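Field log, afternoon session.

UNIT: design team B
ACTIVITY: writing a sequence onto a fixed backbone
BACKBONE:
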């Protein structure tokens, strides 16, 4: 029981850190005219060129690049593009308003809409890579990037991403249904952990007297955990030095632990399509004992290369990226994150905890309901096609109704509190908790 509690806290810590990264990236893009121009240049061909443009691009590319003719870049409709914007908006609202977990609903949402699992993973990776490239700023001049730490970590992450991409592609080529089943199972497990702890966290938030007993693992950024101290005590050369500006003489850790940590992040990124950022922060702080200042800068540095290599090297060249979807999600998420982050100023913390529990639970239910029909198609369990269709339908209805209601509620709060957010009225927290 103790293991599951710590693991849930570990994942929640990473989800919150990744949400902060998303918000910082969004602010950087939207407040820079040059970056906005670049974004517009990327979107104009999609909006104006339509199917003809996509097919022309497909014809100019080598046979391997985008070679899956049923996929990108030839497969395009305006409806799909605008639907991808909606997915991005909702993911951004969750990230901005709740401060965690928005990226976890992208792949399930795409799969629920009929996109193959491997294509959803590749598209999500490309979307994260494009966002990172456009929104990243150099932390090196602030002394917040440990190059040695990042380079050794990247050795492992590139190896893990290579393995993860190979696993997904091999399973897909063997059996597309098995591929969807595998990816769905991964999300069921991951979202199951997240939603269980989110529900517990919300339950705990309703009892103020017990909040002081929160586990310090979530707040471990300022001090080293016992695990980190043990790992840094292992003398297995070469030793990598970091945090020279935080501790006199810096801290040291064996290259082996960095490579293994990177491999885990790269593997998760390539299999799930979430970029690996949600794992990097808790691993650096909670497991390796890296200061939060160094972690933030180094994480931004590594996520560009990890997501870029996984997205381009393991999916794009094999035709498993839906570029129009990726750009639509990028545009939508920039809008959603800004609105969501503003809404946090006028809603209570307890409400935010409840919303996070609802959002992650909806994602878990969606994938959990989708799993049995896929297992039935593989012959692992007995189930009629009608029962499978009913489970799929119920899971999709719950998922999209919950997320749709969440989005409408956030926009309602935003527009009804514009005067407050502009500073024309006193700032207050609303007491209402949505049903």
């Amino acid at each position: 029981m103790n293991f599951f509690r710590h693991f849930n806290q570990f994942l929640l810590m990473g989800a919150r850190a990744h949400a902060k990264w998303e918000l910082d990236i969004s602010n950087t893009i939207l407040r820079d005219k040059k970056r906005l121009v670049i974004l517009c240049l990327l979107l104009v061909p999609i909006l104006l060129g339509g199917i003809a443009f996509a097919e022309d691009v497909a014809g100019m590319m080598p046979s391997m690049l985008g070679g899956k003719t049923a996929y990108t870049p030839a497969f395009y409709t305006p409806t799909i593009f605008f639907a991808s914007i909606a997915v991005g908006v909702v993911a951004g609202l969750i990230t901005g308003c709740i401060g965690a977990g928005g990226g976890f609903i992208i792949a399930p949402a795409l799969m629920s809409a009929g996109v193959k699992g491997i294509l959803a993973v590749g598209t999500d990776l490309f979307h994260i890579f494009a966002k990172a490239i456009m929104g990243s700023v150099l932390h090196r001049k602030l002394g917040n990037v440990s190059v040695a730490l990042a380079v050794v970590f990247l050795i492992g992450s590139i190896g893990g991403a290579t393995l993860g991409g190979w696993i997904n592609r091999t399973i897909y080529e063997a059996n597309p249904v098995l591929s969807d089943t595998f990816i769905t199972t991964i999300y069921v497990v991951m979202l199951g952990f997240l939603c269980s702890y989110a529900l517990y966290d919300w339950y705990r938030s309703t009892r103020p007297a017990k909040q002081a007993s929160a586990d310090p693992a979530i707040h471990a950024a300022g001090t080293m955990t016992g695990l980190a101290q043990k790992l840094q005590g292992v003398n297995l050369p070469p030793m990598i030095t970091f945090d020279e500006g935080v501790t006199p003489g810096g801290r040291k850790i064996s290259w082996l632990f960095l490579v293994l940590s990177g491999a885990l992040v790269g593997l998760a990124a390539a299999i799930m399509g979430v970029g690996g950022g949600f794992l990097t922060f808790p691993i650096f702080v909670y497991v390796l004992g890296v200061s939060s200042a160094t972690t933030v800068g180094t994480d931004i540095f590594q996520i560009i290369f990890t997501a870029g290599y996984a997205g381009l090297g393991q999916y794009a060249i094999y035709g498993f990226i839906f570029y129009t979807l990726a750009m639509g999600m990028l545009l939508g998420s920039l809008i959603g994150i800004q609105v969501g982050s503003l809404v946090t100023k006028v809603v209570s913390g307890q409400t935010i905890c409840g919303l996070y529990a609802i959002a992650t639970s909806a994602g878990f239910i969606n994938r959990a309901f989708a799993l049995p029909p896929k297992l039935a198609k593989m012959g692992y369990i007995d189930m009629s096609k009608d029962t499978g269709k009913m489970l799929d339908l119920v899971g999709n209805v719950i998922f999209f109704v919950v997320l749709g209601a969440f989005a409408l509620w956030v926009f309602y709060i935003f527009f009804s509190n514009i005067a407050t957010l502009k500073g024309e009225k006193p700032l207050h927290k609303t007491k209402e908790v949505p049903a």
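LOG NOTE: Residues 2-141+161-212+306-421 form one domain.
NEXT ACTIVITY: expression trials, pending approval
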